[in-house]
Description:
The protein is of the alpha+beta class. The protein has two domains: 1-109, Zinc finger, CHC2-typedomain (DNA Primase, Chain A); 113-163. It is 44% helix and 9% strand. It contains seven helices and five strands; from the N terminus they run H-H-E-E-E-E-E-H-H-H-H-H. It has helices spanning 7-16, 19-24, 71-79, 83-94, 114-135, 140-148, 153-158, and strands at 30-31, 37-39, 51-54, 59-62, 68-69. A hairpin with a 4-residue loop joins strand 3 and strand 4. The radius of gyration is 19 Å and the shape is globular. The chain starts with 6 loop residues before the first helix and ends in a 12-residue tail after the last helix. Keywords: Metal-binding, Zinc, Zinc-finger. This is Zinc finger CHC2-type domain-containing protein. InterPro entries: DNA_primase_core_N_sf (IPR037068), DNA_primase_Znf_CHC2 (IPR036977), DnaG_primase (IPR050219), Znf_CHC2 (IPR002694). Residues 37-91 form the Zinc finger CHC2-type domain.
Amino acid sequence: MAGRIKAEDVALVKERASIEDVVRQHVTLRNAGPGSLKGLCPFHDEKTPSFTVRPAVGSYHCFGCGEGGDVIDFVRKVDHLDFTEAVERLAVSSGVELHYEEGGGPRQGEAPGRRARLVEAHRAAAEFYGDALITLGEARQGRDFLRGKGFDGAAAKRFGVGYAPVGERT
């Protein structure tokens, strides 16, 4: 079990981690009036943007599905992490050194952020194979097959369909 992160460190992570920068890693954002940005929600399928980010407040909200919160909540939801893992990930990217309540610390027997690193490795692999499906000439047969089944590029991306180049197969 992980030790509890000190409240002042959690507050510092929230202060230093730009919600706009974190959300932009997953969502294309456009201006939506003074102090507000909008884009397509990463948590549900939509065609019209209902997802808003208010950087000055440090929050996000989707008017379509009701998801909302701060930068930690966003990382937890989008990367399927628990609170401690999300804070640890944001601390690393924000340059914040975390301190734990007395007797606590990172998960015993598990390197700090291990799950976060595994999730990131899976995300990078999915991106690699998704890009291979789109860009490699040898993937043409796969693209043709998917098109024949009614899949377009957006559907392939949504369902995580990719192509493993011959040299990458085991």
